[in-house]
Fold this protein.
Amino acid sequence: MKLAYYPGCSLKGTSFEYEVSLLKILEALNIEIKEIPDWNCCGASAAHSINHDLSIALPARNLAIAEKEGYESVLAPCAACSNRLKTAHYELETDDILKKKITGSIEMPYSAGMEINNMLEFLIKIAGKDKIKSMVKRPLTGLKVAAYYGCLLVRPPKIMQFDDPENPVSMDELVGLTGAESVNYSYKTECCGAINSLSKPDVVMALTGNVLYDIKKHGADIVVVACPLCHSNLDVRQREIERKYEEKIGLPVLFITELLGLSFGIDPKDLAIEGHMVTADRVLEKIKEL
Amino acid sequence: MSRIGVFVCWCGSNIAGTVDVAKITEEAKKVPGVVTAVDYKYMCSDPGQNSLRNMIREQNLTGVVLAACSPHMHENTFRKAAVKEGLNPYFVEIANIREQVSWVHEDKERATQKAIDLMKMMVEKVKRDKPIEDVRVPLNKRALVIGGGISGIQAALDIASGGVEVLLVEKEPSIGGRMIQLDETFPTLDCSSCIMTPKMVEVNQNPNIKLYTYSEVEDVSGYIGNFKVKIRKKTKSVIEKDCTGCGECWNVCPMHKNVKSEFNMNLSERTAIYVPFPQAVPLVPVLDRSACLHFKKGGKCVKCYEACGPKCIDFDMKDEIVEETVGAIVAATGYDLMDNSIYGEYGYGKYKDVVSGLQFERLLSASGPTEGVIKRPSDGTTPQTIVFIQCVGSRDPEKGVPYCSKVCCMYTAKHAKLFAHKVHGSQSYVFYIDIRATSKGYEEFVRGVMEQDGAIYLRGRVSKIYEDGGKLIVKGADTLSGNQVEIAADMVVLATGVIPKNGAGKVAQMLGISYDKYGFFTESHPKLRPAESSTAGIFLAGMAQGPRDIPESVVSGSAAASKILGLFSKNEYEVEGTIASVNEATCVACFYCQRVCGFNAIGPKEIKDRSGKIIKVVANVNPGLCTGCGACVNACFSKSIDVKGFTDDQIYAEIRSLAI
Amino acid sequence: MKTVINEENRRNFVSLVESMLHDKLSKCYQCGKCSAGCPVNFEMDYTPNQIIKMTELGMEDAVLNSKTIWLCVSCNTCSTRCPKGFEVTGIMDVLREIAEKKDIISKVEKEVQVFHEVFLDNVKSNGRIFELELVGKYKLKTRRLFRDMFLAPKMFEKGKLRISGEKISGLNQIAKIFKDFE
């Protein structure tokens, strides 16, 4: 099966670490993916927030190109992108009138036959747990990891069709494969504030703070995520949250692909881990000693 | 000389864990009159009962005391065991050392002392027990049902189908009650008259049912199995057996604009001679003398008499009193609506288009004043917007009643649904506090009214209604959005609370049954004896007991009927012998006892000499009515009344035992 | 607040919302499950369930000018848990879109609205998001020049902010899509 890759804007910008690390581990897993040619922004939260049709048309163009290029499956590592692609796909599949309107605008047909995977789904379904496990060269034994899912991977369940929306486990399972211990905590699927990061920073810091302090309380060494938006709020805003609530957090936030890469024995530099705002040096030291 | 046996039960660790059972046994042996005392793990078990029986037999016991659980649990068990050994069952006494000792105390020493005290008290009581025989009352196997609404009809039909003769007494000219006034019924929307009239006709045709309409029960005396009943048949001024119900009389009655129709909730007029509605059972008119020209103008008008083919109008007819004897009674007197006008802010009575729920039923009904077309009482136009207000009077301890009237949520939802069906494009707004839709299919029905029929529900109260340019401006609150809202409505329907039928209290007093502060008849036990009144032989059904819907009313009618058929399946009624008895030698006939008796069980008895001359009047206890409550014992100045098995002598002996 | 219900206006507003939402407002039975789990409820002027009720009552001005519709981050917790399967998240999208089409500029949550608009402008002109340009324009429009600026140097250092953006080659297609649906 030809596997298409829809990186989305964040992976080409603020969350470049995600792309670097995922390409690295897929290379290790010997899985080939190809970027959708001339892909465009999915419109993210802004489009569906104020213009429904636009929020379907923008992702539809990408899906239609992928279909035209003969792909049947798309990896959208960004949780927001996968959410929007899946939503567009769902609405086009269930609403013929809308489909006619959208395909007319993008001037391309779309049969609505595309399989869309988020990063976790891709790793479990396409790569497979056994294969991932076999690649683990440096088990991260003793490392306590909090898997943070946020909203967009699992909700709305009717459309995402992925894991349990209230108690997801797939990322924890991947953490388990690395030999690390996944930490149980209460805020796994609470919202970090998402898109309002720039426009409502105080609200976002309150929400993200709730998540980070809960993780901290449960004794995790690091947090792993599969969403650039979550990463950005948990990592970039972390110092500010510490200042605001006057309590140290100091939790490095890694993408799940980076954690897998570390367990595969890939050099942290090749995984772009130094690209994060909160330094992971101490954890990397700890891993080195394992 | 008493020979008492004391049996101490461990009840596993229930008693033995907290009370020193061996010590009670030892102490029991020391009590004078006690010839044997044993303790055992489970006295109620077969081996336990056998040891009790063996001991009675071998030791010739004259009485036994069980220090065990509550008499509610096993008194009967032990009495039966004792009877098998030839002992009178009332020589078995229970000292409750479980519920009253081991389960409620922790200090073992003091608990044991209390258990010993209770045991000793019972020994003193049993020493003074006398054999008591249960009372047997013969039964007249006929029943009286008061009230011809759905629950009374159901009770009458069920009793009749059991082969028992029933008298059904209805105050109004027709049976049918409130249900026949309704249009369609929730949640299935069966037409009320379609499902009701067959039952009414069945009542009229059933050979076991004797129907008294336009009649009232005036007096009830006697007791279970033997009630004497006086029924007043109010004059209809129509010879019932000759009337064909042709309608010639009411068609010619000139008084057709003068009297408001009670059946149509005052929304239309009726004639002086009238049937309340076309499907009335029996289809015999009654002449309302207060409205009749013949009676008002000195006999001038005789139009109905002239029109009547079979000549069955009788202006000289009088009320008739019928006396009947029955063995059991069903009280199914039904309900009324509260007075809406106590809420000045709703403008009921002031604005014609503010109506009650029952009035709206009549506007919906095909047999109603508008033949089922919804029209405003003020100008006859069809309303487009109706505001419904729930809890008018209900759940209002300050101005109305504190209880929930139970049916209003559902009938309001039904009104909104029927309104949407009858007037397309119309809009309902429903103000509510809570929505109570708890029976089968009810919640789904209410949701359907909102989701399919588009009724808008507003959680909040209405503050004011006033007229403006032909509209009723309704001001209220929607507490869910936190807003004051204002709606221009064409009509307002008040979901008025229900109260017991006017005069229900009097009926209760006449029957000697208890009723609550609102006037609803109270059940003998709210959960376990819901069909029985506080008085033996009198049963309850329908809304007279409290707010309930049609299915529940039907069930309660059937329940009362099945209780009566069960009662009548025997030839005699057996009552526990622990009832009051009068010492006729010392009674001074002050009848203070009669005044305090809550069960009408005490009356005068004449004592005559051989020549038949009355030599003394004394108080007499009716065993069919006495419950053994003991109120008369306390009231008796001459100490002439005792409750058997609980005599003053026994109680003083129990108290004295504590002092020893 | 006091609301005089005008039946015609109410019905028009309700049918507009319902046609865009593909769901019926009357489904909501006001249990409050949405508001209970809403992560941003604490900042809202009306709880999500209130917004639904107010929409049903035709309180157009109040809902379209509310903070709530702009504070909603579309986390979908509400819709996921709604016992009636009502599109709670969806109604926020619909109300924002109506506000946008009616050119209602939010007085209370202008920044959120501007962010969405600037974001889409950025998509329109590049086909993709050029983050630096996005942030810059947003700051100019909201005059919040200095907020979050302290983050910039380190982000540059870490390589998170790129100096130049890329435009896609099918920009004309993007332009058509915007033309069709804007």
